[in-house]
Amino acid sequence: MNVVSRPDQALPADPDSGVVVDVLGAGKTYPDGTRALAPVHLAVSSREFVTLLGPSGCGKSTLLKMVAGLLAPSDGEVRLWREVQSAATQAPEAAGRKLAFVFQDATLMPWSRVRGNVRLPLDLAGVPRGDADRRVDDALALVGLQGFDRHYPRQLSGGMQMRASIARALVMEPNLLLLDEPFGALDEITRTRLDADILDLWWRRSLTVMFVTHSIYEAVFLSTRVVVMAARPGRVLREVLIDEPFPRSEAFRVSQKFLSCCKELSGLLAEAAASGGADPLAGAPT
Amino acid sequence: MSARNGRDHVLRVVAPLAIGVAVLLAWHIWVRMFDIPQYIVPSPLLVAQTLVADWDILSASLLITLKVTFLAFFSAVIVGTLVAFLFVQSRLIELSLFPYAVLLQVTPIVAIAPLIIIWVKNPDAALTLCATIVAIFPVISNTTIGLRSVDPGLLNLFRMNRATRAQILFRLRIPSALPYFFGGLRIASGLSLIGAVVAEFVAGTGGAAAGLAYQILIAGFQLNIPRLFAALILITAAGVILFLLMVWLSKLALGNWHESELTDRS
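Above: the input entities. Below: the structure tokens describing the complete assembly.
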């Protein structure tokens, strides 16, 4: 495989090149006693592509929402760029310290055209119209939606709606991109294309990405590191490094290495499902 | 596909029209054949002639009824929308006031109209108040539901981008509420006409305003049944035009994006 070293790797490290996300024993227990996520320790360094992989109910979305500040942890804390993230204060906003979140659904405003939807974060931040429109054009070009800016969301396919949603996240030029099962509702072919595009964006824009999925293949193809999670209670099982250089091509998907990574991950997930964690019913020996 | 659509459009107009013509024809023949006296059932031709002959009186009455209808409609929309905004601002306000909105809705207007007509000196204001009470409930309930039915994902997005309360209201809550609001308008427009006519009936011949209901009452007393029919037709026509106006308005506002107004369901 053709290995290309990243040109910016030779440059001196910028002040934020260290740990971007630091999850310090953050967990979530709801007031009714339901434990969504046991305390987790996880550090994500700058320019990593970390995937949270696990079955439904393993707390992977909960963890991501706590990182985004959409949900307050009931134990521990989350730090972004070494500052405590909380639902009350929101993310620390400084140059080179911006996070963006891509939801499970495209979550577009149906009454607004693609341009209006993508420009929303800039409008809310009070960016002047001309400057905003230029940045919207750039973001639309990045996701391959040039010429669709006058369309309404309903006129786009599911994949294109997701692209618009990603453009809206990119328009603020984030350093940390959080994606919560973004392609779960799409067909396999569209998903494969968008996976490749996300990987390309991450590579070219020097992003730090946290990606939630329940697809083993997606996790292996995309990630530098996979965090395997288990349900009942939601917890982190193991972290697996995917030791394959970037940029990754479609050939990686059919390689022996890809297969063995998938095997390792599915083995871990099956083991977790069989042991059943704290759930006495699921833990019955066969 | 387009040929079939075209045929569908033609049918949509032609089929009801054919029924209407058939009924008018049957009505005319029936009146002629059995020699029904015009003070029981006038022939459609006679009704049409009366409509033309009495146009001066009837159109003046129509204007009076329409004035009350529009005043009531606008006050119902303005007050109803304000109440809805109040309701979504605070759960306490909604919980304390909503039962009274329901109370207003379930009390028949004919039962409270006499009181209002006694209390409010100005007859126009009294009639408008009655019609407003009839029309306001769908505006309140629909707009309240609309303002509440915000996509939680979009709300999270706005919050993550640190939107202010005003930005969330104008850029998210109000656009989300529009389809519901226009649904409320559609119902309220018909109800304000009904409210205006009912209030006129209750005010009766003693009222100073001589709207269409007044003409119907007088025509009834005088057994001037053709004029009664003519007035009835004007009320119905006004109702239909109001409804179409609301449909057009809602199409204008939502035509581009909302499912309820989309015609090209591909």
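Note for the figure: The beta strands of chain A are 19-29, 35-45, 49-53, 75-80, 83-85, 99-102, 176-180, 208-213, 225-230, 235-241.
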